[in-house]
């Protein structure tokens, strides 16, 4: 549902200043370089550090588990 929201808390951790990164998020993971990957049930998206525009990287539906591995 769109009510499932992924938020980013700024350094220092004040939750009142948390910024919405994406809505409708089913699963997410963060890579060591700060890249965020998330699933909305309609695809998997990548959000690069400093970017506000996600890039769809996979169209697989209903992905409920993600992980980022350092290779």
Characterize the structure shown.
The structure is a single chain. This protein is mainly beta and 71 residues long. 0% of the residues lie in helices and 35% in strands. The strands form 2 sheets. Strands 3-4-5-6 form a 4-stranded antiparallel beta sheet, with no helix packed on it. It has a two-stranded antiparallel sheet with strand order 1-2. Strand 4 (36-39) and strand 5 form a beta hairpin. It is globular. The termini are far apart.
- What's the end-to-end separation, in Å? 33 Å
* Structure annotation, total helices: 0
User: What is the ordering of alpha helices and beta strands?
Assistant: EEEEEE
Largest sheet: 4 strands, antiparallel
Name the beta content range: 35-45%
The number of distinct β-strands equals 6
Q: What is the overall pLDDT average?
A: 90
Counting helices, strands and paired strands, the structural category is mainly beta
Give, in spatial order, the strands making up the sheet with the most strands. Answer: 3-4-5-6
Uncertain segments are: none
Give helix % range: under 10%
